[in-house]
Amino acid sequence: MNWEELKNDQPTVMTMLERSMEKERLAHAYIFEGMRGAGKKAAAVLLAKSLFCLQKTNAAPCGNCTQCRRIEHSNHPDVMVVEPEGASIKKAQVESLQKEFTYKGMEAGLKVYIVNEADKMTASAANSLLKFLEEPESPTLALLLTENTHFMLDTIISRAQKITFAPPPLKKRETIFKETGFSEAAASLLARFPDNIAEEYAEEKKDWIVHGRNLVIQLVDEVQHRPQQMLLTLQEKWLAHFTDRKEQDIGLDLLLFWYRDLLAVKHEKDDLAYPDKADKLKQDALRMSEREVAKQLQQILEAKRRLRANVNAQLLMEQLLLRLQEGS
User: Fold this and answer.
1) Band (193; pLDDT cuts 50, 70, 90)
2) Model pLDDT, residue 135
3) Residue 78: burial class (beta carbons within 10 Å; 0-12, 13-18, 19+)
């Protein structure tokens, strides 16, 4: 991705970086926060290229000079990237970064380091990085990338300028999940969840989210066509699958996505959470008015609010299903 392409996706972020570079007012440390697929790493690499590029146009690096190519291939001596080793970024990785920059501190010029998934630093790694932020051996620019700022040390956050990336388009997020092995059906759901939820259920509970999706489809069909069966399904299957409040909230989200799809097909939109069920959604949408669907959406949102107020989950779901059935 080049500078202009990323500027089209993230106009606010890239315009701000451009202006800071033109005025030579870049901060010494930035936190790039945003959802997976928003372009945080691409922006960090492009910014590094721009700082070293021999033939840039305004702020945009050429991408072809020796400096740009070395950064692109991760062999530039003054640009380093730190990635998690396994589940975390460890203290030894940060210390290695510091040592490299100390050796190169005799050379004139800026040093840039990019820490990907910075929220995954161990406590000792984060404390080592904090010291490095406060006392660099030479002029440095730190670019800390994260999807979960709230998992980072407040002391690190306070010493960096936070830049928030706009969420990527749903289609782009769907593509990311499909490229990691998910079916279109599962990817279209995961793309609609925040990263912290999507990642957990993508990596650890792949089958769980697919089974939950199937339960939603079964339960909605029973609400509309076999109401005498829905409370039995709730008792025997739904509550056995969505066991704690976090999972129950996800179940309500999956239900919410279905009714949002009903509203979408009424407006002839095809960006659906359940794309393989488009024909059924269209049939069901014909039987309900837009007002009825909107009311059902409101019922689900109210159930989510009550769940967070510690209402009994079984009672809450029984009441919700009866209200959805009345509106079908």
Assistant:
1) confident
2) 79
3) buried
In sequence order, which residues have a C-beta less than 8 Å from that of residue 169 and are 6 or more positions away?
Answer: none
The pTM (predicted TM-score) of the whole model is 0.67
Tell me if 34 sits within 8 A of 164, measured CB to CB. yes
Q: In what order do the strands lie in the sheet with 79-82?
A: 79-82, 111-115, 140-146, 29-33, 161-164
Is 217 buried (19+), middle (13-18) or exposed (0-12) by CB count in 10 A? middle
* Residue 86 zone, left/alpha/beta (φ > 0; ψ -120 to 50; rest): left
Token look-up 């980072």 returns: 152
* 29-75 confidence digits (pLDDT tens): 999 999 888 899 999 999 999 999 999 998 999 999 999 999 999 99
Q: How many CB atoms lie within 10 A of CB 2?
A: 13
